[in-house]
Amino acid sequence: MAKQVSLIKLEGNVGDLSFFKSKTVGFQARMKTGVSGDRIANDPAFARTRENGSEFGRAQQYGKRLRDLLRDALFQNSDSRFSTRLASRLLKVVQSDTLSARGERVLKPENLVMLQDLECNDRTKLASISLVPVLLDFDRISGDGILECMGLIPHLNIAKLQGATHVRYTIVLQEFNGENSDQRPAINRSAYIELNDLTPMNLRLTATLAADAAKSVLLLAGMEYFQLVNGAYYPLSNGQYNALTIKQVYVP
Fold first, then answer.
1. Where are the beta strands (DSSP E) in the chain?
2. Which tens digit of pLDDT belongs to each residue from 1-10?
3. 118-250: what CATH class?
4. Residue spans in the chain of domains classed CATH 2.60.40
5. What whole-number distance in Å separates Cα of residue 47 and Cα of residue 174?
6. For 5-57, what is each residue's pLDDT tens digit?
């Protein structure tokens, strides 16, 4: 692969050369390679490629729909690669459809268990910053979700972050079948907890989602850091050290 060293910085195609800018290396050039789009779209030899592309595109659509639903929860609590990791997991969900033909496989609610333990922010895991067990449960009949953290002593049991004075825990219930009818999440956040507090506490958060036995429900749990300044709480470091995880998936 060639590197552009002249003062003229090119991007695009010139004949058989493709010019582009790399985030890490700078402006580069390479020969155009690969098969034409027309051949991929029509040649029987590329039938598998078309099938795989169709299912990958479907997984990306499911991922975008879920991220749109979780927008409020993901703000300051996800990294730039989350959409890629989510699409990868959802592709496996799609490929687990045992009823449809290749290329036509879709999301089946019972296969969404594959999303369990997916980190929204891969830089920080909840278990690494909240050092006492976080217990979770969901009642399909009532639609009630519960997050409990018993005997929590903030000063001893929560990892310190320079500049942080407080944290909040979060529980999120998200119905998801990959359909437009999926309702928006139920989100509940704790009060701001002072990191220097030595008083033991039993933290209990609840959230309620309208129960639907035919839908899968994702239960997410997380924690985020804040700094108290003049009576206002400000999030720290653009959420780099916040955690949010799909902890449980309840299927029909």
1. 2-3, 12-14, 17-22, 26-31, 118-119, 135-139, 144-152, 166-176, 186-189, 193-194, 201-208, 216-229, 232-235, 243-250
2. 445 455 455 5
3. mainly beta
4. 118-250
5. 36
6. 554 555 556 555 666 666 666 666 665 656 556 655 555 554 566 666 777 88
